[in-house]
Amino acid sequence: MCEIIDKKILHENLKQIVVKAPLVAKHANPGQFVIVMADEKGERIPITIADYDREEGTITLIFLEIGTSTKKLGTLEVGDKLYSLCGPLGNPSKIEKFGTVVCVGGGVGIASLYPIVRALKREGNRVISILGARTKSLLIMEKEISDYSDELMISTDDGSKGRKGFVTDVLRELIESGERIDHVIAVGPIPMMKAVSELTKKYRIKTTVSLNPIMVCGMGMCGACRVRVGNEIKFACVDGPEFDGHKVDFDNLMKRNQRFVEEEGISLVRYLDTQWKGEV
Ligand code: FES
Questions:
Q1: 233: Cβ below 6 Å to ligand 1?
Q2: pLDDT digit string (tens) for 141-187?
Q3: 123-126: which pairs have CB atoms within 8 A and are 24 or more residues apart?
Q4: How many Å lie between the centroid of ligand 1 and the Cα of residue 156?
């Protein structure tokens, strides 16, 4: 159980693993996540389920190596087992017949968007997907998302693919072209989801965002994932991870996600040092 049966390096620090987890695959739905530990001393890392195969009993996880724990996870190879895997957690995405839905994905958030796009299309929606990345080589799941989209638009910060600029530039043009949009779903970096929500608020288009705060338990017990939504405090792991983008306090979320930057930096330096000493 929890054995890695496939692994791909999508781009430098961006990795994809397929994990044998029949029970998780059986119950997983779009928008849900798992919490994994690479080893006994590793942190609990929340990762959205990018895909699941109920027949094969597998789930696909895509993650960016940014700190010690994700780097440790990235060292695991096919045949290795995760120390622990807990899920599926969080509420599934609300999938219904909205009409025309624009799905906006940025960076590694595109992986979380894929099962949502697929489910929305199967529900009979007209799906327009807008994917954005810093550069062409960081753009993931383009083919998969295109298969379930009526239209696919791309933007890169450096203009190496699609429109040069941000996903919000593409979305603004789409709205201003007069396209009727019934719902927007945005998954990606916090500044991106904030910008999308600010834009759609002006045009009164309902917008759902999937939040990615720091998490520990994933079950509503520790409070690490507290987010401000409207006048309420919510726990992203049990109340979310999806919320009304027009009500989320993104600045507070950004601040909370920065709380352990110094400790994370120290931990990463120590880990890389150990790795380096192990190699010489
Ligand atoms: S992660 Fe512990 S309460 Fe949400």
A1: no
A2: 899 999 999 999 999 999 999 999 999 999 999 999 999 999 999 99
A3: 123/95, 123/96, 123/97, 124/97, 125/97, 125/98, 125/99, 125/100, 125/101, 126/99, 126/100, 126/101, 126/150
A4: 33
What atom of ligand 1 comes closest to residue 46's alpha carbon? 1
pTM of the model: 0.90
236 Cα–ligand 1 center, Å: 7
278 assigned to some structural domain:
no
What would the two tokens of residue 264 be?
A: 């994370």
Distance 98 CA to ligand 1 centre (A): 30
**Domain end marker among 210, 227, 260:** 210
Q: Is the CB of 106 under 6 A from ligand 1?
A: no
Domain coverage including residue 105: 100-210
Q: Is 95 inside a domain boundary?
A: no
Q: How many domains does the chain have?
A: 3
Report the separation in Å between the CA atom of 222 and the middle of ligand 1, taken as the mean of its atom positions.
5
pLDDT digits (tens, 9 = 90+) for 208-230: 999 988 888 999 999 999 999 99
Query: For residue 83, what is the domain's CATH number?
Result: 2.40.30.10
Q: Both tokens of residue 203?
A: 């045009």
